[in-house]
UniProtKB/TrEMBL annotation:
Key word NADP present: no
Keyword Membrane: yes
Signal peptide annotation: none
This protein's name: Solute:Na+ symporter, SSS family
């Protein structure tokens, strides 16, 4: 990268950090820090939601899917649209008024009101661990992008660089800094993809005929994906819209139910088709570049020898002229940090509110919140240095949270007298079974992900113990 690119990127970093420091002086207590005082509007929240959900993991991960399977990989984010719209209809009306009335900061606090303290504590632990892993996946995504652009960097050095930037402004600014930097970063990302990345890649690769000539069969088809893969994506991604701490924080941050619903419908449309097709298309272009021998100077003679997730940054490095590389790098760092900051804040909120049980109305607790965010961020950086695959780490974090929390949340919403004991054991069985199946690498029939039997076992335990509790008049943990 030349001097112009580096200067552009430095200006971008200064603006992002500046937003964080600005809102540092606007936060009065932990409620301001985690939910923005319940006064935020739909446009900023909606963009923040989609920026968080798509973010770096899906941006780099979708690029990897486009590299491996073409535009059929876009179906992954169709499940994001479904999740956003389903939660707007079925979740938001049931939780936002209660969140505002009781000044809630996290979704385990809702579980506490329905099931009791032990259930809320376990939910907080599961969510905390899940979002810690998810934060790490975003930092790893940023590291892969940086290494592809700056070959002299190691992955660990790149992780440290990304971690410091994302952690600093999140620690100081809280949810307001996260949401407003997300809006700014989303604008940068869209500008980079629509006006720079896609059109220049298309021209540099030789246009439609040259692209089609080297692509494997099925890469331009939407049907080159199995029904098992679609179900795996659906059961992993759709439920996260009902149990994600980052999403509950934004529901609570909205002014009212109408604002929250509008934000969620907006986020869904940006997920699919907008980001879905742009992400896989750039990955597909990277595959074309690899097949054309564009990456020979980088040590890759063919696509088969490459990590699919490194193809996209290598493509950008080889096709973008001075000045535009800086803008495009800022665009992808925007995607990465807009998710990392939200997940970091969610994990911090779970730790402070649900695990330690500190009072959100105590002004001193904003310092505790900032300290927790800093420490958790450091742990996330360390974890990121130990992992290799962005999408694998991200989906594993999703699976752990969903299998443990989805069934109790549905029970909270729709069971008239939900059993705390049933919720507690369904969380333990669901989360533990998914982890065991994953780490032991046990094959599931038809190729389903371990999350599916985890959810089914969780549902069975919830039903069985709920029935016993009704028979004996027991409803709390």
């Amino acid at each position: 990268m030349g001097t112009i690119d580096i200067a552009i990127f430095i200006v971008y970093i200064i603006v992002v950090l500046g937003i964080g420091f600005y809102f540092h002086y606007k936060n009065k207590d932990a409620k301001d820090y985690y939910t923005g005082g319940n006064k935020m509007g739909s446009w900023h929240i909606g963009l923040s939601v989609v920026a968080t959900d798509v973010g770096g993991g899906f941006s780099i991960g979708l690029g990897g899917l486009g590299f491996l399977m073409g535009i059929s990989g876009s179906w992954m984010l169709f499940t994001g649209l479904l999740g956003a719209w389903l939660s707007a209809v079925f979740l938001i009306p049931k939780v936002i008024s209660e969140g505002h009335l009781f000044n809630l900061l996290t979704f385990p606090e809702l579980l506490k009101r329905k099931y009791g303290a032990r259930v809320a504590l376990l939910a907080g632990i599961i969510s905390f661990i899940g979002y810690l892993g998810f934060t790490s996946s975003q930092l790893l995504a940023g590291a892969k992008l940086a290494v592809g652009t700056f070959p002299e960097l190691s992955v660990n050095k790149a992780v440290l660089m990304m971690g410091v930037i994302a952690v600093v402004y999140t620690v100081f600014g809280g949810i307001k800094a996260v949401v407003y930097t997300d809006t700014f970063q989303w604008a940068i990302l869209m500008l980079g993809l629509i006006l720079i990345g896609i059109p220049i890649s298309y021209v540099e690769l030789g246009g439609y005929e040259a692209i089609v000539k080297v692509l494997p069969d099925g890469f331009l088809s939407l049907t080159s994906v199995s029904w098992v893969q679609l179900i795996n994506w659906a059961v992993t991604i759709i439920p996260i819209w009902f149990i994600g701490m980052t999403l509950y924080q934004r529901i609570y941050a909205c002014k009212d139910e109408k604002t929250a619903k509008k934000a969620w419908f907006t986020a869904g449309l940006f997920e699919y088709p907008v980001m879905a097709f742009m992400g896989v298309l750039l990955g597909l272009f990277a595959r074309v570049g690899a097949e054309q021998g564009m990456f020979l100077a980088d040590g890759f003679a063919s696509a088969t020898a490459m990590d699919p997730e490194i193809g996209l940054p290598l493509l950008l490095k080889n096709i973008l002229p001075a000045g535009l590389m800086g803008l495009m790098l800022a665009a992808y760092f925007s995607a990465i940090m807009s998710t990392a900051d939200s997940c970091l804040l969610a994990s911090s909120g779970n730790f402070i509110t649900d695990i330690l049980g500190l009072n959100s109305q105590n002004n001193k607790n904003i310092r505790h919140s900032q300290l927790a965010t800093l420490i958790i961020g450091a742990v996330a950086v360390l974890l990121a240095t130990l992992m290799k695959n962005v999408l694998e780490l991200m989906l594993m974090s999703y699976a752990f949270m969903v299998s443990g929390l989805f069934v109790p949340v549905i029970g909270m919403l729709y069971v008239r007298k939900p059993s705390g004991k049933a919720a507690l054991w369904s969380m333990i069985v669901g989360g533990a079974s998914t982890l065991l199946l994953t780490f032991l690498k046990i094959d599931i029939p038809f190729g389903f992900d371990p999350i599916l039997p985890g959810i089914l076992l969780s549902a069975f335990i919830f039903y069985l113990i709920s029935k016993q509790s009704r028979d004996h008049g027991i409803f709390t943990a």
